[in-house]
Amino acid sequence: MQGIIFNALEEFVLENADMATWNAVIDKSQVASKGVYTSGVNYDDSEIVSLATQLCSELSIPLEDGLKLFGEFLFSFLMNNGPIELGQYDNAQTLLENLDSVVHRDVKRLHPDAYTPFFSYEPVDKETGKLTYFSRRKLCMVAEGLLKGAAKHYGQSVSLNHSKCMHQGADKCCWDIKFEQLNP
Ligand code: HEM
Description:
Elements: H1 3-16, H2 19-29, H3 45-59, H4 63-81, H5 92-97, H6 99-110, E1 118-123, E2 128-134, H7 140-153, E3 156-164, E4 173-181
Antiparallel strand pairs: 1-2, 2-4, 3-4
Helix pairs in contact: 1-4, 2-3, 4-7
The protein binds protoporphyrin IX containing FE.
């Protein structure tokens, strides 16, 4: 997993808790990198899982809820600190249609050792569509948070029906999604 995601996690902890919590998470999860993460460098996937699990136990919140909250935070973090300019999209649907072919492809182009997830968005009409996700990391809860963060960024609401899940034995995660423009 790319260092920028760990930087985002640290920032998330500092905004929602404090430095003592982040230090406790690093100490207790005993990650190989000892909590020093550089943007652009790749770290073992297991570190993000250990840190997220430890963080949720420190904060006494279910892991699924923590991952969703982190995903929502991550979207604005990536928009502000990510390696890619994303000026050209008007709404979350257009961003989703270009997620693999433009956004994550650019991540891969800049960092060839990055492992980016697979997403495919099929619009049903202007507001609704079907999203498919696959990743060896099975971070569908982070994806849900990112979708929420994207909707917020574009002034939209989003409702998600997670109809298939890799954690329930499906080969991919699928959602029926509805985005609505708020105050159009
Ligand atoms: C709705 C929008 C987005 C969704 C649903 C999404 C989804 C995801 C997910 C689920 C991951 C976790 C890795 C995995 O599942 O294997 C991820 C990783 C990542 N995403 Fe996105 N993403 C979105 C937007 C963006 C944007 C706007 C940027 C950059 C400007 C970005 C850059 C990255 C990077 C750098 C990683 C780390 C890849 C790695 O560690 O190898 N994403 N994304």
